[in-house]
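Section: Multi-chain targets

For targets with more than one molecule, the full set of components is provided together so that the structure can be written out for the assembly as a whole rather than chain by chain. Components appear in the order listed by the source. The example entry contains two components.
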Amino acid sequence: MGKITSMLGLLLTHPTEFRTLVQFYLFHEQKRDITAQQEHPTSGWDRSTMRRCWDFLDMTSRSFSAVIKELDGDLARTICIYYLVLRGLDTIEDDMTIPDEIKQPLLRSFHDKTVTPGWTFTESGPNEKDRQLLVEYSAVVGEVNLLAPEYKEIILNICAKMEVGMADYAHKAATAGLVYLETVAEYDLYCHYVAGLVGEGLTRIWSASGKEAPWLCEELELANSMGLLLQKTNIIRDFREDVEEQRFFWPKEIWAKYGFEEMKDLYEKGDVEHATWIQSGMILDALRHACDALDYLRLLKTQTVFVFCAVPVCMAMATLSLCFMNPEMFQRNIKIRKAEAAKLIMQATNTREVALIFRDYARKIHDKAKPQDPNFLRVSVMCCKIEQWYEQNYPSFVIMGENGITYDPSDKRTAVAKIEEKRAMQNNPTNSSRSEPEMFPWELATYVVSAFVLVLGLSVGVVYTILKVYGDE
Amino acid sequence: MSTQQKDVYLVIGGSGFVGRHIVDHLLARGDVVSVFDIVQRHHDVPFYAGDITDEQQVLNAIRKVSMFVGCIRLDGVNNRSCLQSGATCIIHTASPPHGAKDPSIYHKVNVDGTRAVIDAAVAAGVPKLVYTSSAGVAFDGSDVINLDERAPYPEKPFDAYNDSKAKGEALILEANGKGGLLTVALRPAGIFGPGDRQMMVGLYQAYQRGQTHFQVGNNNNLFDYTYVGNLAQAHLLAADKLVPPSDTKPVDPELRSSLGYALPSVSATTGFRRVPTCLARPLGPYVTPPPNASAIEAAFNAPHDPHEPTHPVRRSRFDQFSENSLELASSNPLQVAGQAFFITNGEPVYFWDFMRVVWLALDPPTEEGRKRAQRARWVIPRMFGMVLGFLAECWAGLIGKEAGFTRYRVGYSCATRYHNIEKARRVLGYEPQVGLEEGVSKMVEWFKAENGLA
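Its structure, encoded as tokens over all components, is:
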């Protein structure tokens, strides 16, 4: 009922968004049904422990669960388990009710706990939203132990690296009394531990699965940039919530200016203009991972892996553009609109489309930039790097129409393409007939003629039968 | 310990904006340099006054350039002096300013003058000639989007200036190999910096008239700018790399194989930060250091090499370094001799943003100065701008004055014009050192000092 009234409200206030959402609900179907009988061998739906894991995935992640379930073969189950392991670790890290002397050994041995049959953890604070996952963690442990050994090794390796980083930072906060990250380098390192490593692990899993190039797992900087773009976006968007809960991720190097001495000054002092300059500094920092993310996507081959990686980074770009120069962000948790998210999910199907999405958001950001902001020119340069990336990889003078490829005559690069085509023809005149568009499509003609003959034959047959059966009456 | 003999430079047009910066860079690295120009503006280097279109005058200057060099004997003992005579590298950077009253001067200097320089260089047996061309040689009025050096000269020249630059450049590139002469052409776009007498003047006029809040077009058009110091650096690189191509190994195999990997993004303005990975990261607030601690920390802190190939790159067939395009290239784009190179800051920005930053730098640090920047911008759509431009031109025609707001200017400020400098980065090893922000502040500082502004 609530859904219907909200949709009706949307129809009146935002008719185009209403259309997008209707399209999304009607046409965007789940590509894979993990509960189906034939999927059981790879999805593990026939095991109660794995079914429980799929439940947990739905409970702990709204945004990732759909794209994870669409992954091919046993990748879906593997990534689901990978996600739950890291979610379990994260729940312990986040929990401020666990004292440091208990938290330290717990975090640092989490990769062992994750393969210890029957292990559970029931001492999470009452307000931890994912505490139930740890209460029933033995289900995850059981499933980790059933994973293909190469996947299991990657997951445990990443878990071991991440837990050390988390424990180090938690220990520093608990003992040194330093609550803030000082430099951008420290902020980057923190994001590497909690998100960059996730990207490294995912990339190693793609390579190990054989669905992506074996060398992809060596592109550590690109993999980290994917994670950092997402993590930094969340850190920017969740500013208010985090500050109120005493979680301070923004580095002092960016915000300790213009008389801001504590992070809450950004909304308490009423200095909106300077606060938005700090905000643009944070967004500028996140944007330096945007082209890396595009480079990463460009190297992928498998469609479902691509969608899995592309959708979240598109959402991140949308969120960054929503937050940019937006004072609302300091007051409450802002989110991109549902219809916008639906549109992105439908659009983000190949690198070219994703690059166009990035470019659109870059332009939106640039539109809101203010010259007085000291970050102004660097924001502009960063947005232009996205524009350049698009033109370098998918030059806009090449127009893909119904009749094949045409070139935009008003673009100087058209002259280059024409000269090269002419040279290619001169170098290899035998090939020239291949590019002749007027060539008669014999293969297609054969199909058309045979289809025609088939239909004609069937009609004659039907008419003949009817006449034969009823003709005598 | 270089065994290569140092070049003796003659900078033609060395009193000009770009020429002077080249002289400064050469002096800074201890090179021997002389200047040939029509007027003398500096007195720290030997100067030869003359007319560039007169081959004999250029030739005389080339021959007069002389120096004592410490000659190194085969046994390595540096114990005698000898006289070397004549320039070994000419940097030809003379060009009349765009916007001259009589356009015939363009042809005279850029085409006839360049021909005279080439002839003189060949006659004197000078081995190297570096020419300052212009990105405008490929401009025909339509949008220039991420253009690379394969683009042909326009069939219909855009204007007399760009036409003369294209013809001059063509002469230079054709002259490569003539009588042992090696040539290279550099094509800068939107040069700015201390000493500029074109861009800054126009921007300051608009500032004085209080027109800084007008914006024609939607400002989604990217534009290239080149800091003059970066351009000077590119000239030195081009001169150094201008060596006879080897017959046995026409393509440097290392360079060729590196084409499969991306170059790091230019970071002169944005700054470089290494993305931490599990193999290259700071150690952070560790309790016990990881086993490979020193290695991962060293990898993270290693100096950034802007030309170190990074990840594998997939190139479309329209890419200049795709297999397809390399095969079809009319000349070897991976060598320096006989080639043209776009030289820019490699970080194009939206057209109006650059202006805004210059204007902001001009503002005095007072409340009044801040007020100007706060003014809401007025966006004039391109079509409307064209109509206004037409009317302004008519009005100017009626009262017999030159119009300030013209259709040409509207078109210019709405056009996209940026170039791809991957060839210069890969082949010349060029890398912009001074970013846009730093460059603008250097330019405005100089401009204020020069004009006695606060």
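Strands of chain A lie at 398-401, 404-407.
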